[in-house]
Specification:
By secondary structure, this protein is of the alpha/beta class. It has six helices and 36 strands. Strand 5, helix 2 and strand 6 form a beta-alpha-beta unit.
C-alpha cells in the first residue's frame, strides 16, 4: 500500500517543509535503512549523523532539528516526533488490509450463552469466553484468548494471542504438611484502552477482584497475581511478575524481568528498572534500581563473598566508632 505525503499531514497534522504533497510514501522505515519512498523519524538528537545520511523521502523531526532535516531534504516538523511516528503507524494499519477488522465471534470460538459480548467486539479463533464474562465495545481478542467467568473487559482493549484472564490465583493454606485450596471467589476487572501482550496471565482475586485500570499496557509473558491493582496508564515490559495483593499506582513503568513482591504499594509515577526485585513499598515517585552488575565469574564470586560479610563489617565499624568516642 502507499499514501501521499500530503494525505499523511492532513490526517496527522504537523508542517510539511522542503517537499511536495504528492510524494508517494510506500512504507515507514528506520533512518538507517529508509529509501526514497519511505517515511522515517528522528526523536533523539544523538542520531543526527543518521539524519544526514538517510535516503528517506521525508523525516519527522522536532522544531529544533528543522534546519538539519531541511539540509538533506523534506521533513515534517512536529512537536513530538515519536508520538507522530506512533500515529503514523496507526494510520498505516488503518489504511492497509490488516486494518479491516471484522466484528463478531469467530466460528471456532466458544462463548457461554450468559456472557455479554458487545456487537462491535471481535472474538478471534479458538477463544473461550466463560459464564458471566463481559466484553466491551471495540475490544479485540486475538486467537486462543481465555476470559474466565464473571471477568469484565472494557472498551477498545486489545488482548493478544494466548492471554488467560481469570485463572485461579495461587492461594493455598498449609495443614499438617499438605495444602488446602483457597477458592478464588473474585474476578478480574479491566478498564478501557488496555493492551495485553501474548501469553500474559492475570489471575482472578481471592475475595475481591484483580483490577487493571484504564490505559494500562502489559507486554508479553507477564504474570499478574490475584488481587493486584494496577493504576491508570502504567506500563510493564516482558516477563514482569507482580505477586498477589500488590498495588501499583498510576503512570508507573516496570522494566523487563522485574519482580514486585506481594502486598507492597508503589506510588504514582514510580519507575522500576529491568531485573529489579522490589522488596519494600515505594511511597515517593522516582526511578528505582536493584540489581547486581554482571561480571566475569571469578570477580563476581569475590564480590558476592564480600557482600555476605557487610553486616559483620558494619558491626565492627560501629564498635570502632564507639571505642574512638570513648578514647
Amino acid at each position: 500500500m502507499s499514501l501521499l505525503l500530503g494525505d499523511i499531514v492532513d490526517a496527522l497534522g504537523g508542517t510539511l517543509e522542503g517537499g511536495a504533497r504528492d510524494v508517494v510514501i510506500s512504507r515507514i522505515a528506520p533512518l538507517e535503512i529508509a529509501g526514497p519512498g519511505d517515511l522515517s523519524f528522528l526523536s533523539n538528537p544523538r542520531y543526527q549523523q543518521q539524519l544526514a545520511a538517510t535516503r528517506a523521502a521525508c523525516v519527522i523531526v522536532a522544531p529544533a532539528l528543522r534546519g538539519a532535516a531541511l539540509a538533506r531534504g523534506a521533513c515534517i516538523v512536529a512537536d513530538n516526533p515519536y508520538v507522530y511516528f506512533a500515529r503514523a503507524t496507526q494510520l498505516w494499519r488503518q489504511q492497509g488490509p490488516a486494518g479491516v477488522r471484522q466484528a463478531g465471534v469467530h466460528p471456532s470460538a466458544v462463548v457461554d450463552p450468559s456472557a455479554q459480548v458487545h456487537p462491535s467486539a471481535s472474538i478471534g479463533p479458538l477463544c473461550v469466553v466463560e459464564r458471566g464474562a463481559v466484553i466491551g465495545a471495540g475490544t479485540v481478542l486475538k486467537s486462543r484468548v481465555t476470559v474466565g467467568e464473571d471477568c469484565r473487559i472494557g472498551e477498545r482493549c486489545i488482548v493478544h494471542a494466548g492471554v488467560v484472564i481469570g485463572a485461579d490465583g495461587f492461594g493455598f493454606a498449609p495443614e499438617q504438611g499438605r495444602w488446602v485450596k483457597i477458592e478464588q471467589l473474585g474476578a478480574v476487572r479491566i478498564g478501557d484502552d488496555v493492551e495485553i501482550g501474548a501469553n500474559t496471565c492475570i489471575d482472578r482475586g481471592a475475595l475481591q477482584d484483580t483490577e487493571i485500570e484504564d490505559g494500562v499496557k502489559l507486554d508479553n509473558l507477564i504474570q499478574i497475581g490475584h488481587n493486584v491493582r494496577i493504576g491508570k496508564h502504567s506500563a510493564m515490559a516482558g516477563c514482569v511478575g507482580v505477586a498477589g495483593s500488590a498495588t501499583i499506582g498510576a503512570h508507573c513503568t516496570v522494566g523487563g524481568g522485574a519482580i514486585v513482591l506481594g502486598h507492597l504499594e508503589l506510588a504514582d509515577h514510580v519507575h522500576i528498572s529491568a531485573a529489579t526485585v522490589v522488596t519494600r513499598s515505594l511511597t515517593q515517585p522516582g526511578q528505582y534500581t536493584g540489581m547486581f552488575p554482571i561480571d566475569d565469574n571469578a570477580r563476581w564470586e569475590k564480590n558476592a563473598a564480600t557482600l555476605k560479610q557487610l553486616h559483620s563489617l558494619r558491626e565492627r565499624i560501629k564498635a570502632l566508632e564507639q571505642a574512638l568516642k570513648a578514647a
